[in-house]
Amino acid sequence: MHKIYYPYEEFKEDLKTLTGKIDQPFDAILGIARGGLSMAQMLGEYYDLRQVYALNTIGYDGTEKKESVEVFNIPDLHSAKQVLVVDDIVDSGDTLIEVLDVLNEKYPEVTLLTASIFYKKTACMKPTWYVKEPKGWVEFFWSEDLKG
To answer: Who's near 141: CB < 8 A, 6+ residues apart?
Structure first.
């Protein structure tokens, strides 16, 4: 498997590109942990939003895809009208689909928009906005930079 290191400087530029593509309003940001947390925090700062939330998913064991995606630690979104759900990558699309299914069931009155840095065209779902297609397994700086 071809691995590609994704540095902070590229992430920062890609987030700027992403903000240029987002053309609908939202009143909350929800990061899918762990990969979407850096995005959610920085976008919250950029859009001056305090309504920045996170939820957890487990869909991979290392680089091995699990049979199903577990979604937990779902925040209270009752006061939101439109939520931007962010994740670092839409690989198969299974995580995003499961998250949206869980959120739509719990909050049917909330409009959910989606954004990611990376999107694989083979995924079963396309995010509302994305920046680029990965050319291998992406090693994100937040996963790699503190390793010895």
So the answer is: 5, 6, 7, 8, 11
pTM above 0.90, yes or no: yes
Number of Cβ within 10 Å of residue 8's Cβ equals 12
CATH number, domain of 113, equals 3.40.50.2020
Residue 67 — pLDDT band, cuts 50, 70, 90?
A: confident
Query: Phi-psi region for residue 117, left (φ > 0), alpha (ψ -120 to 50) or beta?
Result: alpha
Domain containing 59: what range?
Answer: 3-144
Counting the structural domains of the chain, the total is 1
- Judge whether 39 and 15 are in contact, CB under 8 Å: yes
- The amino acid that residue 70 corresponds to is E
CB 129 within 8 A of CB 86: no
